[in-house]
Amino acid sequence: xxxxxxxxxxxxxxxxxxxxxxxxxxxxxxxxxxxxxxxxxxxxxxxxxxxxxxxxxxxxxxxxxxxxxxxxxxxxxxxxxxxxxxxxxxxxxxxxxxxxxxxxxxxxxxxxxxxxxxxxxxxxxxxx
Length: 128
Fold this sequence. Notes:
Elements: H1 10-21, H2 30-34, E1 35-39, H3 45-56, E2 67-69, E3 84-88, E4 101-105, E5 110-114, E6 121-125
Parallel strand pairs: 1-6
Antiparallel strand pairs: 2-3, 3-4, 4-5, 5-6
C-alpha cells in the first residue's frame, strides 16, 4: 500500500493571517482551490483495483495507463515533467475509458483521484 506524505496547511494559514493583519489581499491559486482530500475507503471499488495494479506494476487495461500526466490544467502542485503518471479507473457500463483516473506522483508517492477528467482532484488519504 502506498502512503502519501503528510500535507501541511500551516504555510497557507500563515500567509492568510499575515495578509489579514497587514491589510493585504489573499488570492487562491487553482491548485489550492481544486485539490481536496478523499478517504481511501470512500473511493469506488474500481479505484481500489487501479491502486492495487499500480502497486503490482500492472498489467493495466489500457495502453495509456502509466503514461506521463502533464498537469496542463495546473491543478496539481507544480512539478517537473515526468513527475506525474495517470491510470484509468474503469467506469462500469462506459464504452470508453470514462472520466475517472488515478494520478500518481512518483517521488513522494502521492495518489490523486479525479472523477471528472482532471477538472478537480482529491489526494487519497490512507489514514481514514
